């Protein structure tokens, strides 16, 4: 079975996406790109995450052609591929419908640096313009909006995060959901104080050495 390790990781993280309350039902999708092979392991469409098996994960190439698997890839396959083509530092994509990030996206706001943990994305989380899910237009909007960031809000839809590994992309989804909730709560009380560019420069420098022993 091709990309067995990647397939098993996707199953585990899809279940974690539910238990971490980053999505509901069969919402959202995950992929891992093995650049050495030019192949992408991707969630199938419409399969319950707690019934999903490793061999349900479909393998496609970077042109979107099925290489191995009997299931149909996610309806957002084009969006994942657009991100892999956009930046060669991306090896995993996580798409969620987490409540607070999606709330901000439905207001059609970018997420500003209200808390330093937004550094998982960069100095903010940009917003991709609305387009119908699963369309080429949405894929293009997301690829254009993400720039050098590791997260992007999808207007009236949800959140996409990227990383050099699936664990990194997933951690970014978790942290951006937390920052989104903080922003929501502070906006409910008053007007939050936004961190300055200079402070975010400091944060990102510190992030460069975080966790290194």
From TrEMBL:
Listed GO MF terms: aldehyde-lyase activity; metal ion binding
A UniProt-annotated Pfam family: Aldolase_II
GO annotation, cellular component aspect: cytosol
Segments forming domain Class II aldolase/adducin N-terminal: 8-184
Alphabetical UniProt keywords: Lyase, Metal-binding
GO BP, sorted A to Z: pentose catabolic process
Family annotation (PANTHER family): 3-OXO-TETRONATE 4-PHOSPHATE DECARBOXYLASE-RELATED, FUCULOSE PHOSPHATE ALDOLASE
Protein name per Swiss-Prot or TrEMBL: Class II aldolase/adducin family protein
Organism annotation: Aminobacterium colombiense (strain DSM 12261 / ALA-1)
């Amino acid at each position: 079975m091709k990309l067995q390790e990647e397939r098993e990781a996707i199953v585990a993280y899809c279940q974690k996406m539910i238990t971490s309350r980053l999505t509901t039902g069969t919402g959202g999708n995950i992929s891992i790109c093995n650049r050495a092979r030019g192949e992408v392991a991707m969630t199938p469409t419409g399969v319950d995450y707690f019934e999903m098996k490793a061999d349900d994960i479909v393998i496609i190439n970077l042109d979107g052609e099925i290489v191995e698997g009997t299931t149909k890839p996610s309806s957002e396959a084009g969006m994942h591929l657009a991100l892999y083509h956009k930046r060669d530092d991306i090896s995993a994509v996580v798409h969620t419908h987490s409540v607070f990030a999606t709330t901000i996206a439905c207001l059609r706001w970018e997420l500003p640096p209200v808390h330093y943990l937004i550094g998982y994305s960069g100095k903010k989380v940009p917003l991709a313009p609305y387009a119908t899910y699963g369309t080429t237009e949405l894929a293009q909007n997301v690829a254009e909006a993400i720039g050098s960031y590791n997260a992007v809000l999808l207007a009236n839809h949800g959140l996409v995060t990227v990383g050099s590994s699936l664990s990194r992309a997933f951690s970014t989804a978790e942290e951006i959901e937390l920052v989104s909730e903080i922003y929501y709560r502070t906006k409910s009380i008053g007007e939050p104080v936004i961190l300055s560019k200079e402070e975010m420069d400091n944060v990102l420098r510190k992030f460069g050495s975080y966790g290194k022993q």
